Amino acid sequence: MDKPKIVEIKEDITSRNNLFAKEIKAEMKRKKIFYLNVMASPGSGKTTLITNLVNRLKNDYKIGVIEADIDSDVDAVKLLSTGVKVIQMHTAGACHITCQMSYEALCALGVEDLDLVILENVGNLVCPAEFDTGATENLVLLSVPEGDDKPLKYPLMFEVADVVAITKTDVKDIFDFSFEKAKANVRKRNENAEVFVLSAKKDENVDALEQYLRKRIDSIKNA
Amino acid sequence: MHELGIVMNVISQVEKVAEENKVNAVKALTMEVGEVSSVVPDLFKDCFEWAKKRTKYMTDCELDLVVLEAISYCRDCKSNYKTTTYAKECPHCKSVNTYLITGNEINIHDIKVI
């Protein structure tokens, strides 16, 4: 039998994803598209917030939405009511979106004439944070029922966030949630993230987040 | 639960290298996995054992998983510390102005081929 030979590979698995992410970021910048990756736990209100924001922005910007789930099309159907371009992606069991999936979804959606693409990632506070999707920014939701300690328990998710939206303030009286603690816990993980406190369902205090996004979309569009 | 996805990715890259180097079989694979890379070593090994049976070159491949220690650096007091014990907060000066230097790698280091 032949003597085994060593072949050195020395390749970082995630570096391939990160490299691809950089290519997507550069391509989106070149096309002047703001690509927003929305991440949070299942049931934190991602679809409700996205629907609210799309309705506020759709008259001024051309928008496309990518819904990513393990199965079903319930989110995409909800988004259809806004009238913008929506596609539903199935991850076939995967708990997160990789760059390859993100790229294929962007191609399937068709982004040529768009100003804003929103990716609703799989509901999960762990794995999506590990994989850069090539988005311009990451928006992470923390809903009141989840508790103010989540940034401590799921550090990476809050470290990769550019924007944090504390959602479902309309149910704050029922839950033991401290907004001060939540903000302080986000700060422990991330000194730079913009933090907004709102209720998308009751349409309360969504203005500030809307204005922030308008600024960011415009800065990319007019770059 | 994403270990299987990572295993499939690793296998496809190793199989590609095997094909390019025109080998008969891959007998061993050495991987380096950081302590905070979110890969659970035992789960990774289980997924690997399941997946390797479905490959062309790796059906008898042994997996050697080397775990790399996670170390963070504090920008304020300019010292290193063990990430898994102290997380984001520097144990020397209590600052959170810190970042991970090493520990999130998932590296394919080398393969032994015949």
What does this structure look like?
With 223 residues, chain A is of the alpha/beta class. Chain A has a single domain, classed as Rossmann fold (3-Layer(aba) Sandwich). Chain A contains 8 helices and 8 strands, in the order E-H-E-H-E-H-E-H-E-E-H-H-E-H-E-H. In chain A, strands 4-3-5-2-6-7-8 form a 7-stranded parallel beta sheet, sandwiched between helices. The N and C termini of chain A lie far apart (63 Å). The mean pLDDT of chain A is 94. Chain B contains 3 helices and 6 strands, in the order H-E-H-E-E-E-H-E-E. The mean pLDDT of chain B is 93. Chain B is an alpha+beta fold and 114 residues long. Chain B has helices at residues 3-20, 41-52, 83-86; strands at 26-34, 62-68, 71-74, 80-82, 98-102, 106-113. Chain B has a domain at 3-69 and 102-113: hypothetical protein PF0899 fold (2-Layer Sandwich). Chains A and B meet through strand 1 and helix 7 of A and helix 1 and strand 6 of B. Strand 1 of chain A pairs antiparallel with strand 6 of chain B.
Round the mean pLDDT of chain B to the nearest integer and report it.
Answer: 93
Q: Please identify the structural class of chain B as seen in this structure.
A: alpha+beta
CATH fold assignment of the domain at 3-69 and 102-113 in chain B: hypothetical protein PF0899 fold
Residue ranges of chain A: pLDDT <50 for 5 or more in a row?
Answer: none
Major β-sheet of chain B, in short? Answer: 3 strands, mixed
Note the beta-strand portion of chain A: 15-25%
The coarse overall form of chain A would be globular
What is the oligomer described by this structure? heterodimer
One letter per element, helices H and strands E, the order of chain A comes to EHEHEHEHEEHHEHEH
What is the number of helical segments of chain B per DSSP (H or I, 4+ residues)? 3
Name the helix and strand elements of chain B from N-terminus to C-terminus, one letter apiece.
HEHEEEHEE
Residue share in helix of chain B? 25-40%
What's the average pLDDT of chain A?
A: 94
Tell me which CATH architecture of the domain at 3-69 and 102-113 in chain B applies here. 2-Layer Sandwich
CATH superfamily of chain A: P-loop containing nucleotide triphosphate hydrolases
User: What's the end-to-end separation of chain B, in Å?
Assistant: 32 Å
Radius of gyration of chain B: 18 Å
In total, the number of strands of chain A is 8
**What is the spatial order of strands in the main beta sheet of chain A?**
4-3-5-2-6-7-8
Q: Which regions of chain B are unreliable across 5 or more consecutive residues at pLDDT < 50?
A: none
Q: Profile the largest sheet of chain A.
A: 7 strands, parallel
